[in-house]
């Protein structure tokens, strides 16, 4: 069995630690705060981020990143906006042998605020000695609470290297966790990041009491916006019809376990984003990703009306109802876009 170090002791990092430990792997769970990690070792439960789930005996908790260097796999499970700093910490202490003996995985779902870069781009830029062929992304529809409780879950592994993606697939697969591979690294990362924007919208809609019709429309048209920007950035359309596209979108837009949906719901109830974030108590990736995505879309002449409406709401430029009214009163248009369909599909009569 392998030795994993997981940098980031939040809900998902803890859930992955439990999952891997159950499979027989050694896991070192690394957090920033010494007191917190000592308590995790003693109480064997992450009461703040994943209450009710006992830590497996194969898990050792520490705040010493040095214990995560001489391992088989370093899994980065920190929020997107902290990923660059996390990698700088790794680079500061990692010897040359680290880049030959340790492979890296990340599970973040966002875009960096300042640069607009995908997480894998941030990692490779900050760790220049790391080969792209030894960096993988693990993503898909996966609530930490369900993953930790052995509820059947599916994920996608992607990498610049097919063999490394398949290696990650083999390592993570179990009776309750099925992993697929996908060569579209750009699409997998963008699907995971951009769905958080639409989840905010779904929460806003539910907070306004609009019901199933509106939510279904947001999910469907939101997927179109994700695909528009994704394709413009080099992703494959097919990826957005898979687990890291529509799959992750469904689970994030329809579940009360989703922090982005919950944040949107509170926005729909009339709270400002400044009031919402402390109440959620955990990182809401969609709040940052919305701004970055809208800026990218404008620079590429990509239309993203839902994302733009949510961005305006986050900036307090409109109320939730005004945002919805603006979307409903846009200029009429055709549903199916030519770039996403076969040329043979069209009207039989004009």
From TrEMBL:
Gene Ontology terms: cellular component: cytosol
Pathway in which the depicted protein is active: Membrane lipid metabolism; glycerophospholipid metabolism
Enzyme class: oxidoreductase
Active site: 195
Alphabetical list of Pfam families matching this protein: NAD_Gly3P_dh_C, NAD_Gly3P_dh_N
Gene3D superfamilies: N-(1-d-carboxylethyl)-l-norvaline Dehydrogenase, domain 2, NAD(P)-binding Rossmann-like Domain
Annotated family: Belongs to the NAD-dependent glycerol-3-phosphate dehydrogenase family.
Main location: cytoplasm
Cited function: Catalyzes the reduction of the glycolytic intermediate dihydroxyacetone phosphate (DHAP) to sn-glycerol 3-phosphate (G3P), the key precursor for phospholipid synthesis.
Ranges where the Glycerol-3-phosphate dehydrogenase NAD-dependent N-terminal domain occurs: 5-164
Positions that bind NADPH: 11-12, 32, 49, 109, 144, 259, 283, 285
Location of the Glycerol-3-phosphate dehydrogenase NAD-dependent C-terminal domain: 184-324
Source lineage: Bacteria, Bacillati, Bacillota, Bacilli, Bacillales
Keyword terms: Cytoplasm, Lipid biosynthesis, Lipid metabolism, NAD, NADP, Nucleotide-binding, Oxidoreductase, Phospholipid biosynthesis, Phospholipid metabolism
NCBIfam families: PRK00094.1-2, PRK00094.1-3, PRK00094.1-4
UniProt binding sites for NAD(+): 8-13, 82, 144, 259
Enzyme Commission number(s): 1.1.1.94
Catalytic activity as recorded in UniProt: sn-glycerol 3-phosphate + NAD(+) = dihydroxyacetone phosphate + NADH + H(+); sn-glycerol 3-phosphate + NADP(+) = dihydroxyacetone phosphate + NADPH + H(+)
Name listed for the protein in its UniProt record: Glycerol-3-phosphate dehydrogenase [NAD(P)+]
Chain residues that bind substrate: 109, 259-260
Gene Ontology terms for molecular function: glycerol-3-phosphate dehydrogenase (NAD+) activity; glycerol-3-phosphate dehydrogenase (NADP+) activity; NAD binding
GO biological process: carbohydrate metabolic process; glycerol-3-phosphate biosynthetic process; glycerol-3-phosphate catabolic process; glycerophospholipid metabolic process; phospholipid biosynthetic process
